[in-house]
Amino acid sequence: MNPSPLDKNAVAKVLREISLLLQLKGENAFKVRAYDTAADRLLGLTQDLGALVREGRLQELPGIGQGLAEKISELVTTGKLGFHEELKAAFPAGLLEILQLPDMGPKKAMALWKELKVGSVAELEQACREGRVRELKGFGAKSEAKILEGIALHGRAQGKRKLLGDVLPTVESLLARLQAVPGVVRVSPAGSVRRRAETVGDVDLLASAPEAGPALDALANAPGVAVLIGKGESKCSVRMVEADLQVDLRVLPDEDFATALHHFTGSKAHHVRLRGLGQDKGFKISEWGVHRADGTKVLIRDEADIYRLLGMQYVPPELREDSGEIEAALEGRLPEDLLELEDVRGVVHSHSTWSDGKHSLEQMARAAKELGLQYLTVTEHSQAAVYAGGLKEDDLKRQWEEIDRVNEAIPGFRLLKGIEVDILESGALDYRDSVLEQLEVVIGSIHVRHNLNEEQMTQRLLNAMDNPCLNIIGHPTGRLIHERDPYPLRMEAVLDRAAERGVVMEVNGKPARLDLKAEHVRMAVQRGVKLVVSADAHKVEDLPHLIFAVATARKGWARKGEVLNTLPADKFIRALKAQRAR
DNA sequence: GCCGTTTTCGGCCCGACTGTTTTCAGTCG
Question: Fewer CB atoms inside 10 A, N or C side of chain A?
């Protein structure tokens, strides 16, 4: 198989750029949208793009017709697209960066370029300082100041969306504060936080109350607020000290809460589709509610009412990305038993002071029990992971004695004897089989030698899965969001082998990992590969990271039955072994 | 550029907000 010069992410990025360039050109807005829709479609793709191209099946994807199919094929097979190159040549490269500034769209950017020959952010900044921008039609002194402010912010926060895991604690404490305000009925996060996206730009919060004032004040005066950006009748925006995070709160009457929550949860792509469906059925769906053709308002008590009205299953927020959930919900194919946090009985993947963890086995066990869990899989690093205090084979026996002592000391809870064994460059495991066979849970992970090529890395994992001692592949792509790219890997091949051999895939909940990520989870589920959700805990404070693994599994449409650590400890271990014995 | 029990043309989601205007265009979510 020839590796594709461009993968789906790269192709989507080109389509996105074409959309921007077409907007600059003043092209028909619907043509522009077609490129955006196609980019969304590719990003949510769970099939192999290269295969779709080879088999000429691109046009089976909704939103992709003949024109886009040809362009995508050209990109995938040659790595370039003539149409794209021509468009790019027509504008200065810096214009695309100008478009990233707040309140800056194609019309304004083109005016700046045509009238002032401003073609980069640096030139724009200079033009503002010299007062030349305010002379333009449609611009004024205020726009000039706003642009300068935007440039400053852009420089500071360039591409730095925050990890969901870094943001959620702040969000939850703000929500608790708002819920305690007298008169407040309901509170909820909205936007990407509620959809449990991997990373978050701004945080949107909603509250319902008869009077907006007290709730708005509660946010404006909340601890940790650095700047009050703005406060009006029904909205308040602040910037938090922590992580330079912007938080927007809207307060509205409780009867408008459900439609507003739905509106502000998004995603945009999901909404565009829903509104189209609504229109077909004679409803107009907007932020302010659902209206019939005669203008009367439909009573919407909660979000489920909206989906019911459209004759489809309820779509949980995590799934609202227009990646097939709408078709599935219309046909009744959406999983009704998506994994819930409450389904999880035990935590998989943890470290203690025996290797690079911060807390003792007993501390970890007590903390996990405190969270309502029944077991914790102890999986220290193996000897190859020298930097992480990896255990020698001999150390294991002594650790097992301590595990036995802790298990006796804490009734109703159990530490399982496991290991996170390194997958060496060849795909061999870092312990002898005779040692691995004695363990209850064997996670195999890659920690060293990341710089192999796609074929070598794929083969490394395939080889590892051939060892019957291996139960689970840990953080299969090795990515660290914002820090390290996933290693090159043919995920389809890895998952096919996992399905064939009964190897389980980890969904690692560490906020910077989320690995497998949601789209890979979906690919795994489609192949019948079983999963575990893990915390990858190195200290007791990491144990709640399980919620991010659960969120990722849900975003990948994983049902309870597909996640093995929803089973009690004995059945969990038996299921792991049974998988391998198939 | 896509799409079709309104099918090969003429549609394509909707409304608020802002700053600029003097009735509206552009941007955003």
Answer: C
